[in-house]
Amino acid sequence: MARNLHNLLLRFNLHLRYCGNRQIVNRLSLRGLSTSQSLNLASKTESSTPSIKGPDDVPRYPGSRATEWTTHLKFLDPDRIEGIPVYHVMNSQGVVMGESQDPKLPEDMVVDMYQTMTLLNTMDKILYESQRQGRISFYLTNFGEEGTHIGSAAALNPKDLIFGQYREAGVLMWRGFTLDEFMDQCYGNESDVAHGRQMPVHYGSKDLHFVTISSTIATQIPQASGAAYAYKRAQNGLCAVCYFGEGAASEGDAHAAFNFAATLDCPVIFICRNNGYAISTPTQEQYRGDGIASRAPGYGMPCIRVDGNDIFAMYNVTKAAREICLSQSRPILIEAMTYRIGHHSTSDDSTAYRSVDEVNQWDKVENPILRLKKYMIAQDWWSEEKDKDWMKENRRRVIEAFQAAGKKKKPNPELMFGDVYDTLTKNLQQQMQYMKEHVEKYKENYPIDRFNSWKRNRQQYT
Cα separations (Å) of 139 from 23, 123, 128, 367? Predict the structure, then answer.
């Protein structure tokens, strides 16, 4: 009886080994290897496991990677685990700390990076002030986080699909979104591609492979995982890239997205901008563990923590992540440590929950723009005189685009009813007609002259 049981257990373990080997073959095949290559690699992987001697030699539970038993009752204490280090290339003075890590980017590219960051900074100042003057309804600045945008964007393929949260305007600017397009969207005027149907800063561009921003926190994370899975099936050599804040990582959508991407080996790069605050909630109240990167191993994802205020570090990390992402067909999590210098939005007053001295320290000492400027000056690629001239020029460009957008009319209100159905439904036609009649009847209460005129031909909507 005992001998039969032993033989049965042995056959069962051999069956498990075979099934595990087939799983390895399937995963390797999905990563572009031939069946023979997959079998060879799978055999090497399988041969590295201990030989089967009996049911109690090692744990064999399918839900973990445990390879040994212990009789020591000990809980894993996260407070005693050393924190994940922060990768950087330059210090706060713009000095490269390790020559081997210098990406050796050409002068014109580095200057372009600097000018894009400062142009974004100037645009933020003008549009923030314009909201305070009542010219636009809402705005979010990117102050302090410009390095996370430009450093990562420069390392990506322009056709990689971007899913942003709402504080990644620099990524879109690097890809070629013009000042006119930014201003038209924030004004919601007749030139806005969304016809004024989105809140300000909810940018999007099909041509630049940037999915339109959604207000709801974290919805873009599972969307990015799904898009990456489609890219994997298409084998198009591209990946999805998803930006989000550390606050969004507390949403259930983030868990679903990470687990989905990891188990299905989706080529997606998750970039978490850990800027210290989720609106008014500081990180020490947002989570107990070691940031966001520490969660990745639990999902089976490679991860790295990087100095987000170091544009070269962001470039190196994103470039390496993309190579791993595509060559191994698996997700990567990058945690970019940075600091939100501005208020969360024009609806927020951050002085209610943090000190001015704290903000000034990050603005004057750890600012990514100043860091890159110091590097460029040390390389003799830039000077204070060039900087002064450029700041005048970029302000002129922003003001010019701002004024042009403000003079344009608002979109035709009839456009509110389009782009939902292929053919305008009867109930929407009735609603549109009611709206027109209402506005005509009470036109003294509506600034009709600021909008494009009605389209008289109803057949255009049917």
Answer: 49, 11, 6, 21
